[in-house]
Structures are given as C-alpha cells and as structure tokens.
Design brief:
The chain has helices spanning 23-36, 51-62, 67-91, 102-112, 117-128, 143-151, 164-180, 194-208; strands spanning 11-16, 41-45, 95-99, 135-140, 185-189. It is an alpha/beta fold. A 5-stranded parallel β-sheet has the order 2-3-1-4-5, sandwiched between helices. The chain is globular and about 45 Å long. The two termini are 25 Å apart. The relative contact order is 0.21.
Length: 209
C-alpha cells in the first residue's frame, strides 16, 4: 500500500484485533503511561473521531447497511478522522493512538465479507491520503474467548452478533496481514492478563519513543 511522505514530528500508533481483544483497555493504560512521561497524546477511534465520524459510527454499529454501503461508510468515517483528528495531531507532534484503522477494513470487509481486497486497499489509500501508521499492534486471542468477553459487555453491536465463522475469518484476515506486514504490525498475545499485555506493549513502544 502506498504511503504518503510524512513531514510531521508525531507518532501514529494503531491497534487492531478481533472482538473482545481488549484494545480499549490497553489504549487507556498506554495513554496514561505516555502522559506521565510528558507526552501529548491524541486518542481516536474508527469509526469515530469527531462529530461526523461518531454519527457514521452509529449508523454502522446499530443500523443495517448493505455490504457495499458498509465498506463506503467505514471509508468515509476514516477520511474524516484522518483529516480532522489524526493529521492535525501528528503535525502538532502528538502521539496518536487509534483504535482500529485500515487493517480492520481489510479483515472485516475483505476476508470476512468477501469484498475485493485490492479494491479495499485502493479505497483505504484514497480515504487516508496514503497515511500509514508508524506501528500497528494486533491484539490476538481465540475467537471464542473474545466473543465470551464481548457477550459479558452490555454494549454489544451488530458486528458482535455476527456468526462464529464470520469472526474466525476476521481473525484469519488479521493474522494474514501480520505475515504480509512484518515491519509494521506486531502480534501481541491478548489471551494473557491485562498487566502482561500492557507490559509487552510498553516495552515495544519504548523503541519507537
């Protein structure tokens, strides 16, 4: 995937993973640790980021868009997030922590929904202007374990309620992306304790800082 030239002084870190992997928890802990070091952190999520993205999120997670519309809505939210949140923060020298980014679209809409992955990659480049993360962490765990965690959460959405086979395809997609992007994507075993995962993330991020 083409990458746009970066002239900013920020650091762009994204977090990916199947449902229930604990991304939100780990991003919160990392944000707190970075703040104690005096780092300015901007935290965002996809879909979401600003008021426009959050409205698209509501449509995606609680509405009933068709497969093609789903892909385009995710792309629209991403374009908005990059333009209004991510790029300005990077230009200001912030550490940007983003909950899901381009890899989720490949895993969910490509591997699980069966849409053309080359087309998805082109849409991602268009939506992001070629912006790529400096580092991506894939928090991975068995699908059944992740879904059990999500089922204990009162805020389930329509993606949580997809079939087991759908979520298995999502996980397979993420693991395939790790193999194809070994310099960018770091695999983290999220089946362990919160503290163990947090420790591994912090040790890895120290290399970037």
């Amino acid at each position: 995937m083409a990458q746009a030239e970066r002239k900013d002084s920020g650091l762009f870190i994204t977090f990916e993973g199947p449902e229930g992997a604990g991304k939100t928890t780990q991003i919160t802990l990392l944000e707190q640790r970075l703040a104690t070091q005096g780092r300015t952190v901007t935290r965002t999520r996809e879909p979401g980021g600003d008021s426009v993205g959050e409205r698209v999120r509501e449509l995606l997670l609680n509405g009933s868009p068709g497969v093609e519309a789903e892909l385009l809505l995710f792309a629209a939210a991403r374009a908005q997030n990059v333009q209004t949140v991510v790029r300005p923060a990077l230009e200001a020298g912030h550490v940007v922590l983003c909950d899901r980014f381009i890899d989720s679209t490949v895993a969910y809409q490509g591997f699980a929904r069966g849409l053309n992955r080359d087309f998805i990659n082109r849409i991602n480049v268009f939506a992001t202007g070629g912006l790529m993360p400096d580092r991506t962490y894939l928090l991975d765990l068995p699908v059944a374990d992740g879904l059990l965690r999500r089922h204990q959460d009162t805020e389930q959405n329509r993606l949580d309620r997809e079939s087991l086979s759908f979520h298995e395809k999502v996980r397979d997609g993420f693991l395939s992306l790790v193999q194809d992007n070994t310099q960018r994507i770091i695999l983290i075993d999220a089946s362990r304790s919160v503290d163990a995962v947090s420790r591994d993330l912090w040790e890895s991020i120290q290399q970037l800082l």
